[in-house]
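User: Structure please.
Assistant: Input sequence and predicted structure:
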Amino acid sequence: LQEIVAPEISNQIKSSDFLTNKPAKTGPQDSIVIGGSTEILLNGDYYLRYLKLNSTLTLNVGSSDSTLVIEQADLAGEIIVKGTGRLTIYFKDRLNMEGYFKMNEKGLPSKLTVVYLGVNELLVQNSPGMNAHFVVKSEKAKVTINAVPIKGIFLTGSKNVEFGGYANNSEVLLVAPDASVVITGSHMVNGSIISENFKIWNNGQLKYKEINTEGFPFGGTGGNTQQDKELISSEPTIEPN
């Protein structure tokens, strides 16, 4: 995780060049505020200083892979990834996911990788779904998944990870070797967890499920290795006493 840095990207998103639906309101040239349903065509790699989203944003990557670097973001509404290519989004500093925010809810995790480089808590809550591979670099950035079914690989250097709130269909391979991981509040995780410490309480559950690693930036195209499978027995479901 120490080697993860946001790529240096010189292109800036400009609403007049890349919006294929109705224009977004813009502040500085490299900031965008989106209050209505909008589609942006990404035909390369781009940099954005600030994104505020209050509606549905469709990021169309076409048939190519694209990278989007965003320094700060306030996100509500929905992000949809469109096209046959893959999208990687780097959030360099602040990532605030508000309200009923959805991310690639109906898409495959292999289509979207989210890399968070900030040090503040990554809080994902009260969302109907997020399908993406996540990478959280900093050990200072606590990770809290609250009442959100999340699908994909989650790699983090964080010291603290918590799955809480009711969600019964998370499908995650969590790789958090330095973390204390807690599953609580009737959250069911289907997958595997690699961590320093692990605790289940208050009706949390963990059940082994093979997770497809296709699209994860650090390699892998199939499911978990045999070594992964041996970490957690597939039966019975792990439940609190």
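The chain is about 5% helix and 50% strand.
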